[in-house]
Amino acid sequence: MASSLVRSLVTLAATMTSLVTSKPLETVDLTYVLGKDAVFWPGQPPFNFTIILRGRQPGGYWFEVNAFGLGEHGGTHFDAPAHFVQGGWRAHQIPSSRLVGPGVVVNVADKVKGNAEYELTTEDLMNWEEEYGRIPDGAVVLMNSGWGSRYPDLEKVFNTKNPKDPTTFRFPGVHRDAARWLAEERNITALGVDFPSPDTPRKSVAAGYPVHTTLLGKDILILENVAYVNKLPPRGATIIIGTVKLQDGSGGPARILGLLGIDDASGSPQLRACRLTVLLMVLFSIVRKVVTL
Question: Among 196, 261, 280, 289, which residue has the fewest nearby CB atoms (within 10 Å)?
Answer without folding.
Answer: 289
